[in-house]
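Q: Given only this backbone (176 positions), what sequence would you predict?
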């Protein structure tokens, strides 16, 4: 489900609410109740998102953050190793796996990112292309205005998916 957010603050801080109404208590009061935390909880709670957050926290506790980290780093390193096999791919901004999350930006020599994105999409591989809401970062890396192709891996990425990516990258290289 869509996300949920929260605020951590000291009880004695008196912030002005951003949203008014719909608390379910003091309904005749046109202002927000002066009761913490209800004072900051305008509208109905996003129960679906809260349930999703609850389930994800239980999953994290069950699997263990260390195990998730270890598996994600293993998969990330496999992706980096795969990409390094292609002379036509330049990895942008790469640091060692311990210094970065499972997202890799790259450029394909001779192709615009959106062209590569379309080829990968046609082969059922989802990537993001372009500036990724970070034009200044792309100016810094010299990838502005076209941007990059952004691949990402997670705990759930499988070896079969990496094999599928390899087939697609081979196809791009062979048809360049």
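A: Predicted residues:
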């Amino acid at each position: 489900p869509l996300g949920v957010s929260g605020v951590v603050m000291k009880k004695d801080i008196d912030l002005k609410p951003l949203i008014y109404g719909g608390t379910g208590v003091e309904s005749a009061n046109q202002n927000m109740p002066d009761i913490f935390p209800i004072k900051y909880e305008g509208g109905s709670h996003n129960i679906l998102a809260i349930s999703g957050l609850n389930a994800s926290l239980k999953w994290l506790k069950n699997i263990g953050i260390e195990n998730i980290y270890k598996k994600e780093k293993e998969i990330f390193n496999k992706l980096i190793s795969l990409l390094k096999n292609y002379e036509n791919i330049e990895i942008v901004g790469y640091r060692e796996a311990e210094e970065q999350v499972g997202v890799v930006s790259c450029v394909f020599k001779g192709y615009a990112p959106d062209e590569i994105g379309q080829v990968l999409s046609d082969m059922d591989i989802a990537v993001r292309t372009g500036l990724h809401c970070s034009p200044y970062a792309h100016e810094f890396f010299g990838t502005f205005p076209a941007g990059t192709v952004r691949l990402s891996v997670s705990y759930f990425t499988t070896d079969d998916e990496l094999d599928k990516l390899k087939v697609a990258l081979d196809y791009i290289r062979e048809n360049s």
